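DATA SHEET
Item: assembly model
Revision: 1
Owner: S.N.
Input lines:
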Amino acid sequence: MKKLTTLLTAGLLGGAMAISPAHADDMRIALVVKALGIGFFEAAAKGAEEAAAELGGVEIIYTGPTDTTAEGQIEVINSLIAQKVDAIAISANDQDALVPALKKAMNRGITVISWDSGVAPEGRQMHLNPSSNPLIGNMIVKMAADHLPDGGDVAVLSASATATNQNIWIEEMNKVVGNYEGINVVATVYGDDLSDKSYREAQGLMSSHPDLKAIIAPTSVGIVAAAQAVSDAGKAGEILVTGLGLPSEMAAHVDSGASKSFAIWNPIDLGYAATMISYNLAKGEATAAAGGEIGMGRLGAVQLSDSLDGAMADPFVYDASNINDFKEIF
Amino acid sequence: MSSTDTKQGTSIPDRLRSPFTRAITSWEFLLLCVAILIFFLNVQASPYFLDPWNLSDATFNFTEKAMIAFAMALVIISGEIDLSVASIIALVSTCMGFLVQLGVDTPALVAAAILVGAACGAFNGVLVAGLGLPSIVVTIGTLSLFRGIAYIVLGDKAYSGYPESFAFFGQGYVWWVITFEMVLFAVVALLFYVLLHRTSFGRSTIAIGNNPTAALFAGIRVARVKFFLFVLTGIMSAVAAVCLTSRLGSTRPSIAAGWELEIVTMVVLGGVNILGGAGTIPGVVIAAIVMGMVTFGLGLLNVPGIVMSIFIGLLLIGVIALPIIIRRARQRVGS
């Protein structure tokens, strides 16, 4: 019986360990995500593989804990340090708790960057934001203006009045709205990121501004509620809904015509850019210095700020042409 | 000398099997074989495994959990269970974080942690031993309660800024690759070995697990022993909280989420009877090392975490099922 257990254990372990270790001459870049099995990160891994194929001689180790905990990510980081990978690009579950583990990685000569969700500056060489506040502020009004050649009244449906991100984006939007001729921002209302309240606020906008041409909702809850309110009022196509949303939640409203386009980061590009940056830093072809630039392949180059972070690109625009490819992803 | 008593399982053998036979058929021996096997498989599978620094890093996978597992082993042997341990870590860590904001230094932080841990354990103990409530229900309740308090205090924020000297517990090295946590793990293991196997308190714990009523009639203060075991588990959770918080350098309310199940797994894998009454500390020590090596070995091969969980799950089911299968097989052969 004991022999049987031993055999069983050996079989199980052997089966799990049949995956062969990497070729020594490859550069190995680890893409560490918040947790495995999340569509957004699976898409980022796809982008990383794309970058690896373009670069050649790069192996991507796509890994992460089972649930979104800092302890789980630390175990993953420890095993990556042990494998002496060349670079770690991480989307962090905790900006502080990972610092000691990532510092250790850097001390052992591993390139460390964070992307999507950042690590405190002392725990990484640079951080890649998917976009920046001015780019987001510009994009949300640009999408409305693109479909309103003659201009018109637009209104903003935000999250709560104290939501930091949304307030910054709206402020940035107001700075550039003058660049778009004929676009008037007539009101800003707050749906508190609650579906029912956002829905009522959108209804209120339609009744108090009969000439309303577009609703801009820079929140994934608000944009869905606004699109629903517009559809329910039978004004799909007349009043345009745009802003920031998730493809999976917005696909139906793009089909119905309530929304022509909306934006959010592109996870594939994000994984691609993180890999390119890791490669360039690990190869020594670029250094992470304030004000410096690091190449990101087909996406150009990222400019680093004084706190060593940078923005990848404009938010990616989703419309009828690509929504079906992305709605399965996130 | 054949036994004349034909009733299955109730006969007392004429003589005990020799110490050697007992040793090599014991649970600990089997587990040790598994551990050695896993060690060699790991060496085979990854060129990075056999590196002193890597092995040293790998011990963090189990040392903190094992410290709680020792106390948990005693609780389970006594016929109870404590599922609130990970939540006690969260609450203790939150209290330490709060005190750091007030400028409290390392010695007082550790003292406060132990105090809070003991209080949490005492709370469980009073409900289980004092009121006689089932421990699984009580500790599922306090599992939510203790972590809930941490969430109310912290929300989506984090405490950081722990003093420099505090980092030693989770990041310090005593000598070469020997971490402070390893030393603490060894000392705690030894203390629990003595407590369970060399004191009357340990014998009482096993007796209670086998038959609480008989234990009571034998003059053992059942409620008092159980109460003390829960306090002990609280204290060990606090010790683990100090190490983990020191290693992370910050506190979030989600700290150590899900650890209670890994700790129970460790205890059961160590040969402790989940129904109480039997189990050893050496078994738990080996089980902790096995689990640490399996997760680290699979991690080196970049096996996704979910596959690791599946593997640990299979190991656990196998371990629980095996003795039962053996007994059935013996009975069939015997009859």
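QC remark: The interface with chain B takes residues 1-2, 5-6, 8-10, 12-14, 16-17, 19, 21, 36-37, 61, 63-72, 74-76, 78-79, 81-84, 94-97, 99-100 of chain A (CB under 8 Å).
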